[in-house]
Amino acid sequence: MKKALVVGASGGMGYALTCELASRGVDVVAFARRKERLETLFQNQRKVTLIPGDVLNQSSLHQAAKGADVIFHAVSFPYPEWETKHVACLENVLNAAKTEQARVAYVDNIYAYGKQNTPRVTEEAVKEPHTKKGKLRLSMENKLKDSSVPTLIVHLPDLYGPNAENTILHETLKGVVQNKTANFVGSTKVAREFLFTFDGAKVMVDLAFDPQAYNQNWNIPAAHPVTGEELMDILRDITGFKGSVRSVSTMLIRLMGLFSPAMREVVEMMYLTESPVVLSGEKFEREVGPLPRTPYRLGLEQTIAWMKL
User: Are 126 and 255 members of one domain?
Assistant: First the structure.
């Protein structure tokens, strides 16, 4: 891989992927809507070319994809826009990949797995999503598999890290940095996974360099499951935060949904805060090598430092 296109480069995973690719000497095209945001994020990156544009505009995306060996699909949309935009975006990415004879590395979440009853979910787990967002994600996965484009599909748990602002943990961190009440979505006593974005980026780039990794699914776990209480202990120690923590329950999200379309869309995903899906990284470690596992303390220190810039 000599040249890569990162679609959604201004998001959390897109930023981490762009930085990881550039650090390995890959020429990277960073593609996102806002030129100013791209300039702020990558102004000092010598290997990164900035191309602002709309992923839903086929000609704009094709122009950005010229000469790319791999297209990294790291685009996400607000929940209320999923049904109208996600499939169209994926089709545009696949069309661009076909034109350029490029491969696709797809950033996916865990929604397609639905509820699982095993301690660690492997790639062989049956996917029977019960939510509309999980069903949409599964349909997108199948569209990738049915295409003629070599594709690797990487399932990641909830994320945190520098520039990862559209995540549920970011809301907690924002309260800590502002020294206000920290909202934690779900119970603070249930252990869940939060993956440091730069760990996810390292794994995805490793896989993207390996021709044998394509046309497969890969599950990438976090360092280990952690409770909200444990995270807050780390955050208090790092920052000296002495404020209160409010657990945001499903009932509260449902009440907020009466006034907010975005909150209404969150309700169906709250099962993941009660019965978390924890991924197994056994396949990656068996076939590729050790997974990067940044300790939560170090990852949170780097994320907090970024937020204070």
Answer: no
